[in-house]
Amino acid sequence: MIPLRVSLQNGQQASIDMQKLLPVAEGTSQIHLGWESTLTFSHELESFVELSGGPPDVRGNSDGDACEVDDEYAKRVYGKTRADVPKPA
């Protein structure tokens, strides 16, 4: 298990297993403008989670974030719906 802290839509934090996330699409975050991101689906949360990473600083370090996003955001930003979520192995 690789624990991942996710910011939930209700303002709380949750810890989920990063290895159980199902990748759905890649793109650019609209939460953190200019950050590259991956839309994933968490069956633990039963919702989409956006993983995003900022551009590196002069030392090569970058910030990252994991945020729960709603179905409308997934559709608007990535063009994906729950029908596009791969079935868990």
Structure write-up:
The structure is a single chain. The protein is globular, with a radius of gyration of 13 Å. The protein contains 1 helix and 6 strands. The chain has one domain (3-56, 63-84). The model has no long low-confidence stretch (mean pLDDT 93). The chain has one helix at 71-78; strands at 3-7, 13-17, 22-28, 36-42, 47-53, 64-69. The two termini are 16 Å apart. The chain has a 4-stranded antiparallel β-sheet with strand order 3-4-5-6. A two-stranded antiparallel sheet has the order 1-2. With 89 residues, it is mainly β.
Major sheet summary line: 4 strands, antiparallel
Global structural class: mainly beta
Note the beta-strand portion: 35-45%
Radius of gyration: 13 Å
C-alpha termini separation:
16 Å
Tell me the number of helical segments per DSSP (H or I, 4 or more residues long): 1
Query: How many separate domains make up the residues?
Result: 1
Low-pLDDT regions: none
Strand order in space, largest sheet = 3-4-5-6
Mean pLDDT: 93
Count of DSSP strands: 6
Element-by-element helix/strand order: EEEEEEH
Percent helix: under 10%
Give a brief rundown of this model.
Helices cover 9% and strands 42% of the residues. The chain has 89 residues and is mainly beta.
Question: Which short descriptors sum up this protein?
Answer:
single chain, 89 residues, mainly beta, 4-stranded antiparallel beta sheet, 1 helix, 6 strands, globular
Secondary-structure map:
Layout lengths: L2 E5 L5 E5 L4 E7 L7 E7 L4 E7 L10 E6 L1 H8 L11
Antiparallel strand pairs: 1-2, 3-4, 4-5, 5-6
